Amino acid sequence: MAEEGAVQGSVRVDAWIWAVRLAKTRSLAASACRAGHVRVNGERAKPASPVRPGDEVRVRQPGRERIVVVKRLLRKRVGPPVAAECFIDNSPPPPPREEAIAVPVRDRGTGRPTKRDRREMERLRGAR
């Protein structure tokens, strides 16, 4: 007997990405597809594109790209341990937290940055 939520055939890529917890909500998964951040077997995927076992799904997320191979199809969202069994993760390891972009923190109550403050922040970030 098939497990709860398991499906035969194919499933929409946005529903599968949401079900295996690569996206927080179904609408975010669909938006990522429409924006071109999702590829199935190297091709840009629309939200309704079918995904089947054995397909390679690439999801671009802030700061990294997730590369997964579909093992099992799901239509409904499942818990993290079950979701981890539904794909093979071939993603490169995430960058260490120290290398993550440091966001400058302003003191509370200092108000909006002045033009001079903004230019100093850009200079420190190397934007100009």
Automatic annotation (TrEMBL):
Instruction: Give the Pfam families listed for this entry.
Output: S4
Source domain of life: Bacteria
Query: Could you tell me which residue ranges the RNA-binding S4 domain spans?
Result: 11-75
Disordered: region residues: 86-128
User: Quick check: keyword Flavoprotein in the entry?
Assistant: no
Q: Which InterPro entries match?
A: HSP15 (IPR025708), S4_RNA-bd (IPR002942), S4_RNA-bd_sf (IPR036986)
Q: Which UniProt keywords apply?
A: DNA-binding, RNA-binding
Q: Carries keyword Mitochondrion?
A: no
Compositionally biased residues, Basic and acidic residues: 96-110, 117-128
- Say which family it is in: Belongs to the HSP15 family.
By what name is this protein known?
RNA-binding S4 domain-containing protein
Biological source species: Streptomyces litchfieldiae
